[in-house]
Amino acid sequence: MTSEARIEALLAEHPVIDGHNDLPIAFYELCGYDLDAYDLAGSVPQLHTDLPRLRAGHVGAQFWSLWVPQDEHAVRRTFEQLDFVRRLVERFPADLQLADTADDVDAAIKAGRVASLMGMEGGHSIGESLGVLRVMRALGVRYMTLTHNNNVSWADSATDEPVLGGLNEFGEDVVREMNRIGMLVDLSHVSADTMRHALRVTSAPVIFSHSSARAVCDVPRNAPDDVLETLTGNDGVCMVTFVPYFTSQAYVDWLDGMHALAKEHGLEAPEHREKVEAMYGVPRPEVTLADVVEHVEHAREVAGVDHIGLGGDYDGCPEFPVELPDVASYPVLFSALADRGWSDEELGKLAGGNILRVLRAADDAATA
């Protein structure tokens, strides 16, 4: 077994830079962004994230997700989430530091603080306006996921009926403008055709902020092997997520069976979940650390060790693999990979070296 001391030393030198954490919307749903209601400097068991657990997980930088419902208020609500992240950082200046560039991330980590970056989750947050996109970037937003669960007028989502077969002309303009202003193009949530289309258009490395491998778990939210292979030439990064429905095929099959039964009996509302589960009679499969390891190793095999990262999606779904329940869990994953022969150099790239390289490339391209 890998020694705890080795992993502690490794993550002290190469702290985790996580691609996606939904604390902003989770905190809104918990208490309406009221930072006086729950003290994140202490234990907040209602969430997957608080400052002590970020420290325990050796998280050196976090992309906080700005996700809001896809409705007519989306732009305003995104600004409110951006405001929450800024107020969060101001509330805990000894622990958090706002970061806008790769150099900012380095400086925050050296100062012993968690670098706080922001990413918009869904193109609906710009209201079909390149002007809003530019303002979001000026305010510190470093990536935009082109869609969320539904299509936007200019890009197809992975979980909606395809309309465009990828991007339309305005969608291509969005990608080019993101390249120009140094905003990372995030291909999580988009359809496979949108992934391929964006990769043809982009002149800068792309990311998947929280996606896993479709060859391991066959759901539309995961990246197909041909797309993962393209990351090598693009120099992008797929940040593997821990969400059970994107991680375990057994869990997917179980949940799909549950949904089919619920639909058959008209019991699709969330309050009927326990009743449907009892009717179904099939035990819920346990999603484990080994499932996540399989995705990380598959993405490494297909895309290469320089093109993988981590995007846990904590506070973005109700449950996680049993050994990875919250943001304190990253050392468990690194220990498992070390036991499988990963070198310290390879683990450092996964932890944050790769996404920091991509962020710096975006900085350089925008400056140029």
Helix fraction by DSSP (H/I, runs of at least 4): 40-55%
Report the portion of residues in β strands.
Answer: 5-15%
Q: Give Rg in angstroms.
A: 19 Å
* Strand element count: 9
Mean pLDDT rating: 97
Order of helices and strands: HEHHEHEHEHEHEHEHEHHHHEHH
Descriptive overview:
The chain has 368 residues and is an alpha/beta fold. Strands 1, 2, 3, 4, 5 and 6 form a 6-stranded parallel β-sheet that branches. It has a 3-stranded parallel β-sheet with strand order 7-8-9. The chain has helices at residues 4-13, 23-31, 51-56, 74-91, 102-110, 130-138, 169-181, 192-201, 225-234, 244-247, 249-264, 273-280, 289-303, 330-339, 344-367; strands at residues 16-21, 59-66, 96-98, 114-121, 141-145, 184-186, 207-208, 237-240, 308-310. Helix 1 crosses helix 14 (330-339).
Secondary structure elements and their pairing?
Elements: H1 4-13, E1 16-21, H2 23-31, H3 51-56, E2 59-66, H4 74-91, E3 96-98, H5 102-110, E4 114-121, H6 130-138, E5 141-145, H7 169-181, E6 184-186, H8 192-201, E7 207-208, H9 225-234, E8 237-240, H10 244-247, H11 249-264, H12 273-280, H13 289-303, E9 308-310, H14 330-339, H15 344-367
Parallel strand pairs: 1-2, 2-4, 3-4, 4-5, 5-6, 7-8, 8-9
